[in-house]
Amino acid sequence: xxxxxxxxxxGAAPGGAPPPRAAAPVAAPPPRAAAxxxxxxxxxxxxxxxxxxxxxxxxxxxxxxxxGAEGVVDYAVAPPPCSTAPPPGADRETGCVxxxxxxxxxxxxxxxxxxxGVVDYAxAPGATPGAAPGTIRGGRPRERLRGYLEVGLASLANGSIGVxxxxxxxPASMLLxxxxxxxAAALGVVVLVSGSWxxxxxxxxxxxxxxxxxxxxxxxxxxxLAIRSTGVAVAIFLSxxxxxxxxxxxxxxxxxxxxRIVYVALAIGLAGMAVILVxxxxxEGTRLSAAGLFCxxxxxxxxxxxxxxxxxxxxxxxxxTAVVFTQSAFTAAVxLVxxxxxxxxxxxxxxxxxxxxxxxxxLLTTAFSFSIFxxxxxxxxxxxxxxxxxxxxxxxxxxxxxxxxxxxxxxxxAGGAMIVVAGILVILYGREQLEPELxx
Length: 440
What we know:
This protein is mainly alpha-helical. It has 2 domains: 48-84 and 96-122, no CATH class; 141-429, no CATH class. The protein has 13 helices and 5 strands. The strands form 2 sheets. The chain has a 3-stranded antiparallel β-sheet, with no helix packed on it. Helix 1 runs antiparallel to helix 10 (352-376) and helix 6 runs antiparallel to helix 11. The longest helix has 27 residues, at 320-346. The chain is globular. 52% of the residues are buried.
């Protein structure tokens, strides 16, 4: 997520599937009960049948007939581990799904026939052979790739924020307000047409949407205050500590373990970030204050909270457009009064260029980028997404070179290369997405 800083195009600030259900208790099938004596001769033997249920647990029902009277015995059986490859053309979404019926027919005339049905099953897409029943070991590789591409594309789009802010003379607080207003207006149409506004009424969604909206507004305000107190370089670095917080917090809140490669990638990515910011530190000097450091830390922490809420909402299948619409409208309302005060104090007069930049910021770097970023969180771990988002500060100097003719320094190129390496490590060696637990 990105905030607007004062002047200069240098800095850009940090910006599902349902959870695995617990397997049903497994009970041994009760002994078969003898049916009433047949009136018209021996009854026909029944065959046991099993059918798959959610989470990989199956329920078998044995039918037997005795002179036309049907006896039914229900029992629950857990399928064996997923150890066979899915048949060609299989298209299953989750867990181990029972697909065939019981095979042992009953043999005693006039009694309830049939023994426990044999479960035939196939692993879900992305399931690791030998995994526990109902355990989702990750989405399809194609979906995982989609998640990385969406998060990466959103981050590259947000890298252009610094250039747009440079072209605008509007006070930053009003620019932010209009940016969010344009985004809310555009997404409002999408939400109405698609009907995604109904997602906001799903259980648990309203409070989470309120939480993510407050986290975004706090992130943008704290980042702006950090720039004023400590300078752009320090503010950006502190804001991008969010992945560090997520590495330790996500396992406890989302029950989404942080794999080892994340720590390696974090070390490389943060080192690359520090290298990029060296020129800024040398030019600005170090202006440290307790208030400035706190604002920078708060910006990073609120961004981490934002990502946690986003991940939780995607886990509940709340579409990203509905969430981004709500948080944009919320932030625009919060920033309206500060924006008007800033305009009045600066005796500012609106211009067509400033309004165009506000519209581009709202449509490209908010409505579009925020929506696809959040959608990508459905398919990849939130820790991975926060590291791939480091592409935002890497791409910012490229936009500055193309549109502002600002040649990046050797420090910027070296640091950017380190960040790209960190992202590649996560994509190639990071563990696949596990089904997240919903935030309580």
